């Protein structure tokens, strides 16, 4: 919505009579009411003041933008007021405000007032625009100034696209959607600006899709970069030049990617149905790893939420969910049932379903879910319960995906009149049937294999257990969120599903060490790091504490030969110590925020913290010794 659709002549006041903040708000509210924009003046006034109590809307530079979303608004509108003397509005810069824009939005306005607020804030930071508002002598001149500014901004956007050598689009996505997704987007945007290229980047993060690409933008794009380690919506790019690569490459080789896309050198046309694009044939992450990570990333909320709820239930006692135990607590039993009985129960089917949908798109989801459900509920093996668990779920997901592709191929020659029946009848019927039959046949031996493997790992102790911890820790640190890191983490989740909590404890501790260790190194060895790296080290402390291994990437990218050996060594030490101390943790994510859920009480929690601290110190000392002094 344009600002000039909301700002009208009958809501403008060229010379405010008010001398105080309260008077200004009352006068602007009165103007909106006189223009017929409000249904309840007092209610809207209360909403305006409620917003002011949260934080001042005096944004500085002589500007204030009071606003509210209220049921008392009849028609969304903006009121403008100007004070030549200035009024104390408790602005952020402590200076009097001269220009006031009051935004009134109805409750069903779909956040239009926030969009208008964002644009107004941008416009009003322009000194020349403010000068025009100061100089205006009529309401027409105010409207003209706003119209001209909006046209100018739109024109600049068009000019920047026209001046650039290409109109580029990009999509970034990583399995967890926490760090890599946004780091890659920022790097592409920043590098494109440096190269004078026009680009729009869509992020597929943990909170959903942001800055979504429109059909018109895709149609007009010269090339599209898809930097993703998990499944993204690709059908929309059919017939367009597309570069498919991993999200890490967008972080470390953004300039090369952008130059390749803008020149369209060695960029193949993406065909959604049939055949592989040239990028896929070059071995980018579009196969096994990508499908696996699509399953893992969608499964994680069930694992994290369920695991923490189970751990919380133990606060009332280890047997608090058992009705026959004297420790029984109804609320603890409820938490355990939600986390273990429901969230964990769905974990493997969700993994299978999203692996299958990554391979065969939406038609693969139902067969994958059913296959995963069979994997966890049908054992068919004597002395075994719970089916083939995580292992069976992985196999079910890939099986369902490729079975569905076979079914789609088999029905590809049906008459066009039956096209509508494919997704609602043929694909689910035959996909579920074939996947289910195969899983029913192979799950008994899979269950025996999974049970035997679990028992073997659980029986490991002493030196063997220490070795496994060293390997898990090293893998978590080696590629900082890449395939090895995710493989170690996925293994930890698999063991968590099997009821062994030591492996995920080692994985999380090992993943926390790299950013914590390098952050510590920036504090201890300041002469080895630039000022910028020292500032980044402060952020790395927070990221490491939250188990976001990607926080060390900027340091590793700048000096991989020294940082990676240091982080791998420190993380391996931590992983080995946690396994040696036999530390278990039911929460698969959360860093220091879930350390209280470590099994064994305060003593074990302390050992877990000490293991992480020792690994961080080892990393810091090695980094300090290996890195050269900055002159």
From TrEMBL:
Pfam families the UniProt entry points to: PTS_EIIA_2, PTS_IIB
Gene Ontology process terms (BP): phosphoenolpyruvate-dependent sugar phosphotransferase system
Compartments reported by the entry: Cell inner membrane; Cytoplasm
MF terms (GO), sorted A to Z: carbohydrate:proton symporter activity; protein-N(PI)-phosphohistidine-fructose phosphotransferase system transporter activity; protein-phosphocysteine-sugar phosphotransferase activity
Domain PTS EIIA type-2: 5-149
Primary location recorded for the protein, binned into one broad class: membrane
Residues spanning the membrane: 299-318, 338-357, 390-411, 423-442, 462-480, 501-520, 564-585, 605-626
Keywords, in A-Z order: Cell membrane, Membrane, Phosphoprotein, Phosphotransferase system, Sugar transport, Transferase, Transmembrane, Transmembrane helix, Transport
SUPFAM superfamilies recorded: Phoshotransferase/anion transport protein (SSF55804), PTS system IIB component-like (SSF52794)
Source organism superkingdom: Bacteria
Membrane topology type: Multi-pass membrane protein
Domain PTS EIIC type-2: residue ranges: 288-631
GO CC annotation: cytoplasm; plasma membrane
Domain PTS EIIB type-2: from-to ranges: 168-263
Entries under Gene3D superfamilies matching the protein: 3.40.50.2300, Mannitol-specific EII, Chain A
PANTHER family: FRUCTOSE-LIKE PERMEASE, PTS SYSTEM 2-O-ALPHA-MANNOSYL-D-GLYCERATE-SPECIFIC EIIABC COMPONENT
NCBIfam families reported in the protein's UniProt record: FRU, fruA, PTS_IIC_fructo
Protein name as catalogued: PTS fructose transporter subunit IIA
Highest classification ranks of the organism: Bacteria, Bacillati, Bacillota, Bacilli, Bacillales
């Amino acid at each position: 919505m344009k600002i000039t659709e909301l700002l009208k002549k009958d809501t403008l006041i060229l010379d405010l009579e008010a001398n105080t903040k309260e008077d200004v708000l009352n006068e602007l509210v009165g103007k909106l009411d006189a223009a017929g924009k409000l249904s309840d003046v007092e209610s809207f006034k209360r909403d305006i003041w409620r917003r002011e109590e949260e934080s001042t809307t005096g944004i500085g530079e002589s500007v204030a933008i009071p606003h509210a979303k209220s049921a008392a608004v009849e028609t969304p509108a903006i009121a403008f007021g100007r004070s030549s003397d200035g009024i104390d509005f408790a602005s952020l810069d402590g200076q009097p405000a001269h220009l006031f824009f009051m935004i009134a939005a109805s409750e069903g306005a779909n956040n239009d007032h926030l969009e208008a607020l964002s644009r107004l804030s941008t416009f009003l930071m322009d000194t020349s625009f403010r000068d025009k508002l100061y100089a205006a002598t009529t309401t027409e001149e105010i409207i003209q100034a706003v119209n001209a500014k909006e046209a100018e901004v739109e024109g600049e956007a068009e000019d920047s696209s026209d001046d650039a050598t290409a109109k580029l689009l990009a999509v970034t996505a990583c399995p967890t959607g926490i760090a890599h997704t946004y780091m890659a987007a920022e790097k592409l945007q920043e590098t494109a600006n440096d190269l004078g290229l026009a680009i729009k980047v869509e992020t597929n993060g943990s909170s959903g899709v942001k800055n979504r690409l429109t059909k018109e933008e895709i149609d007009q794009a010269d090339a599209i970069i898809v930097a993703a380690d998990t499944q993204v919506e690709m059908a929309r790019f059919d017939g367009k030049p597309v570069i498919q690569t991993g999200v890490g490459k967008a972080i470390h080789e953004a300039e090369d990617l952008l130059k390749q896309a803008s020149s369209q050198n060695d960029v193949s046309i993406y065909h959604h149905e049939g055949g592989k694009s040239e990028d896929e044939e070059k071995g980018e992450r579009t196969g096994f790893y990508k499908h696996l990570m699509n399953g893992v990333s969608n499964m994680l909320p069930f694992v994290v939420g369920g695991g923490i709820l189970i751990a919380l239930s133990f606060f009332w006692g280890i047997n608090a969910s058992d009705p026959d135990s004297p420790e029984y607590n109804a609320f603890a039993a409820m938490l355990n049932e939600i986390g273990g009985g429901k969230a964990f129960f769905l974990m493997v089917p969700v993994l299978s379903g999203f692996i299958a949908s990554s391979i065969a798109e939406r038609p693969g989801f139902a067969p994958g879910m059913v296959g995963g459900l069979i994997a966890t509920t049908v054992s068919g093996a004597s002395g075994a319960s719970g089916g083939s668990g995580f292992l069976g779920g992985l196999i079910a997901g890939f099986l369902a995906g490729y079975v569905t592709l076979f079914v789609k191929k088999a029905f590809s020659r049906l008459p066009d009149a039956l096209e509508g029946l494919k997704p609602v009848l043929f694909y689910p019927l035959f996909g579920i049937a074939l996947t289910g039959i195969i899983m029913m046949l192979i799950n008994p031996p899979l269950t025996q294999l999974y049970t035997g493997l679990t028992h073997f790992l659980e029986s490991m102790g002493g030196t063997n257990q220490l070795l496994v911890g060293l390997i898990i820790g090293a893998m978590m640190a080696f590629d900082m969120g890449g395939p090895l890191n995710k493989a170690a983490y996925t293994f930890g989740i698999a063991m968590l599903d099997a009821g062994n909590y030591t492996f995920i404890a080692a994985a999380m501790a090992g993943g926390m060490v790299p950013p914590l260790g390098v952050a510590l190194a920036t504090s201890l060895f300041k002469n080895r790091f630039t000022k910028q790296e020292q500032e980044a080290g402060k952020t790395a402390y927070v990221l490491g504490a939250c188990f976001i291994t990607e926080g060390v990437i900027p340091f590793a990218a700048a000096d991989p030969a020294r940082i990676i050996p240091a982080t791998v060594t420190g993380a391996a030490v931590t992983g080995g110590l946690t396994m040696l101390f036999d530390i278990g943790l039911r929460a698969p994510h959360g860093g220091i925020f879930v350390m209280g859920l470590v099994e064994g009480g305060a003593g074990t929690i302390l050992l877990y913290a000490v293991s992480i601290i020792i690994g961080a110190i080892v990393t810091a000392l090695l980094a300090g010794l290996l890195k050269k002094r900055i002159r």
